[in-house]
Write a structure and sequence with these properties.
The chain is mainly α and about 80 residues long. It has four helices and no strands. The protein has helices at about 15-35, 50-55, 60-65, 70-80. The chain starts with 16 loop residues before the first helix and ends with a helix.
């Protein structure tokens, strides 16, 4: 009876150089497909004037207290500029 804590053996065949190369190629293809996706920053197309206009919200203390998420977003946009 097999030990339940041990993972089942995947293959009883010895590991060969050709088998290793095949595994490496499969992994390389997998990562290559993931790398083809282009990441676009959410702040890539910010307009400086629009961000500075939004930053006026810091003049009103009520906005800062009542909507901290918007303030964090504006600060992140300012830092990205």
């Amino acid at each position: 009876m097999a030990d339940p804590n041990q993972p089942p053996p995947e293959d009883d065949a010895p590991l060969t150089m050709a088998g290793m190369m095949k595994e490496v190629q499969v992994l390389a293809d997998k990562f290559k497909a993931e790398d083809d996706e282009v990441y676009v920053s959410p702040y890539a197309y910010l307009e400086k004037a629009a961000v500075l206009q939004e930053a006026r919200c810091f003049n009103d203390s009520m906005v800062v207290r009542e909507n901290p998420r918007k303030c964090c977003t504006v600060i992140a946009q300012l830092l990205h500029l």
